[in-house]
Specification:
Length: about 500
Amino acid sequence: MTDRLHRSTLPETVEAPVTPESVGIVHLGIGAFHRAHQAVYTEMAARATGDRRWGILGVTQRSASVRDQLRPQDGVYSVLTAGADETSLDLVGAVVDVAWPAEETERVLDAVGAATTHLVTLTVTEKGYCRKGSGSLDLSLVSGDVVALRAEQGVTGGTDVDGELRTGAVGLLVRGLAARFRAAQAAGDHRPLTVLTCDNMVDNGRVLQGLVGELVDAALPGEEGDTLRAWLAEDVTFPCSMVDRIVPATTAEQRDDVEHRLGVRDEGLVVGEPFSQWVIEDRFAGPRPAWERVGATLTDDVAVWERAKLRLLNGTHSLLAYAGRLAGHETIAEAVQDPAIAARARQLLFEDALATLVAPEGADLVAYGESLLVRFANPATGHTTRQVSMDGTQKIPYRWGGTIAERLEVGEVPRGAAFALAAWAEVVRREAVAGRAVDDPRGEEMAKTVAVLGGGSAADARPEDVARALTALAGMLPSGVGLDPALLDAVAAEVEGLL
């Protein structure tokens, strides 16, 4: 039986990973993306500077699977960088351990509160922020954290929370922040902290800061939470950031290949494309790794980078996913090599989105757009159209919404974006007709919409009517945009073309 990868079984064929001296970062949502992106930057920064303070305690949100992969390996795992023509392999040791809150909540709270921890980072996906369509916090999704926060703060009495008690990443974060505040009070210090979200949301740091404030207000209204609110305002910062690297699911064949290369079995293997980018607002409350030494961009304005990435990369990615599913393509690489779909992707990129953007200093957005099509065509990434097309109502507002609104504002109907909306709506309609659950937080709502349009039967709903109704759903597009007659006509026409 092959040995498991571990610090005691490190192969000599690749550079040894760092061994952190302490936990300096608590990361919520330690899935494959974090391990192939932020953890890699942290590893590289430690190697470049010799600074070993930045060990990562990963927190797995959905299940114990990542903990069970990495804990037996002492946190060490490998990253397979897969290009179209060649691959490379590196070991990462920046992760000290992984905790699962369902069984180790106190450990997570203690780690956030520790004086050696200076950052909490997050990759929990858009829906992990428990937001309503309006953008405000959905308290029903963090009700358990509201109750727990009151108890942990020593506040007696009830709250307005009713029904099933549930928890979420934002709730766990706030409880960790409150634990840090209590620890600072006990020690007589301040313990400043940087909370850095790395999820694809416009103005993500300020969005998270607002959600944290909403949860504190709900759990500790009035004087009950005044001292915690004051500490958050004085000692905690929420920088914005933008991240970019395609990180597909790891296959069994890749695990076997890496086992052959290393001579040991790595159950924590992650795969990423050669391209990687990280833009961070330079607004830290305390010390941090020297990420800029290894390729990260520190800036006063993330928004211009973020907007370009969301509208060009993420927007095109989603178009390829929906159109690819309709055409029977399993992967994004197959979809982008379909001439008809590639033409519509170019339309969204270069006619719609690019016209709404100002290039960041030193960036060539036309070249960036062309590079995206090359990256998407890399078969090694393995991104499936089904995977990318999940959670459309959480992604579309950010990926297509701004482009559509700004083009309509100048009197232009964005045809590529109209095609993308039509493809999304048609995927939803076909799932409803087939009786399958739509993989989306608003899936039931959309399925009911389709059924109502068909007089109780989804199969009887006219595709054009479905496309119009879904485009007009509250929260899908900026205020009023989803009701624009020219846009709705364009989307309905595109559906007819898809059929």
